[in-house]
Amino acid sequence: MRTDSSKMEPLLAAFAERTRTSDGLAADRSPMPFADALPVDIDEQATGPGQPLDLHDTLQARRSSLQYGDAPVRTDLILRWVREALSRDADDWALDDDIGPLEAFVFALRSEGEPAGVYRVTAHEASFLAPASAIGDPELLGIQREFADAGGMVTVCANLDAADSWAGAHGFRLCAVRASMSLYDFHLRCQSHGLVGTIFGGFIGAAVRNLIQSDGVTRHPLLAATYAHPLP
After folding, report:
1. What is the C-alpha to C-alpha distance for residues 95 and 123, in angstroms, rounded to an integer?
2. pTM of the full structure
């Protein structure tokens, strides 16, 4: 089937558009800090049980799951895998100075080894933000309440203000691609170690606004994933 190129040109031009729509002052604004955050040491040598699958076998065995076992998940491993995914993003794209680094927030609902609660992770560090009691009813975090049955959830955030100041809509597209790649990096690592989960669109903004200081501009959640042990 032949495609009329004249009809495709406006669409392709829109994807190349780099005109910013912000006031261009993103460099003067920063995401809200977490004054009470407690640093968490990430054990770089921590390993999961058994021998993980390689990428080929992981992709062959991967299934999106909304059925979860009740066993708690080792949060030290989750924090390590998230940090490694963000570190690879920073190295591969080399855009942190232009549109800001990605951040991730781990909602450890059933945790082993670390307190249940909310954690912040960057390419360089991890910190504990709030206990599980601050989350309230986890079913109210998202539209699909079955996500709250998981051992935990991870969401990846970006600075849309900086992205727009850098390259307009193209900056947002790159943030969305980076967030997706990082989250799938983490998700596949979980799958390779025998955990289950699924990718989903994210949390209700108002539900996590205070927990992760998300203003929807300098820090905006783009994509999320669940993780858990499989049903026995």
Report:
1. 13
2. 0.89
For residues 229 and 75, the answer to whether their CB atoms sit within 8 Å is no
**Residue in this structure with the two tokens 């190349």, named with its chain if needed:** 16
Q: pLDDT class for 63, splitting at 50, 70, 90?
A: confident
User: Cα separation of 56 and 232, whole Å?
Assistant: 25
Q: Which of 225, 120, 127 is closest to 181 using CA atoms?
A: 225
Q: Spell out a b/e string for 126-148, using b for 16 or more CB atoms within 10 Å of the CB, else e.
A: bbbbbebeebeebeebbeeeebb
Pairing of strands 103-108, 38-40: unpaired
Distance CA 195, CA 227 (A): 7
Highest mean pLDDT among 30-34, 83-87, 94-98: 83-87
> Could you give the CA distance from residue 115 to residue 80 in angstroms, rounded to a whole number?
15
Which candidate, 174, 169, 199, 19, places its Cα nearest to that of 100?
174
Cα 19 from Cα 86, distance rounded (Å): 27
**Among 232, 193, 231, 198, CA closest to 66:** 198
CA 8 to chain centre: 33
How far apart, in whole angstroms, are the C-alpha atoms of residue 102 and residue 121? 9
Q: Which residue type occupies 20?
A: R
Q: Return the residue matching tokens 């232009």.
A: 98
